[in-house]
Amino acid sequence: MTDQNSNDQLPTIQPDKFYDPSEIVLVGMNISGINSPRAADVKIDTEGSNSFSRIALQLWHTPNCELALVNAYIYEGRKYELPKPKIMVVSGKGEELPGNYFPNNRPLKFWRMSKLARTAEVTVEEGLLETLVLEANLPGRRSPNSYAANMQMAHRSGRLNS
């Protein structure tokens, strides 16, 4: 998140009117396109060379939402960096932060949202098919609910009735 300024040098984001303990401030940039304010393209490398494809994301029936690439958030006065940026649906237009924090002078924005607000996160993983399908399904990397659930009934001496 740095170009000329350091991450720790972000301007202070003051509370809107009063302190709200349920407020989360998302910090990132609007990735929606210029022609369509509610659509975004995500570039993916398809062949490992100079060729690439794009995934088009578009919001429907959401007049007050944008697609944002969120890099950090502020909660209860503390700023937390995300280990990997997230593509999220955010409500409102966002407010611009002064300064250039990204290459090509892309403006950094912030969105004030309630921690109880409903949203969506879009995850895009890119890599070899072996990594994304086979290795992700190895034991130890799967979610616990994907393992086969077997139940056995046991009783003293293997008898169910006395």
UniProtKB/TrEMBL annotation:
Species annotation: Roseibium album
Domain of life: Bacteria
Protein name in the entry: Uncharacterized protein
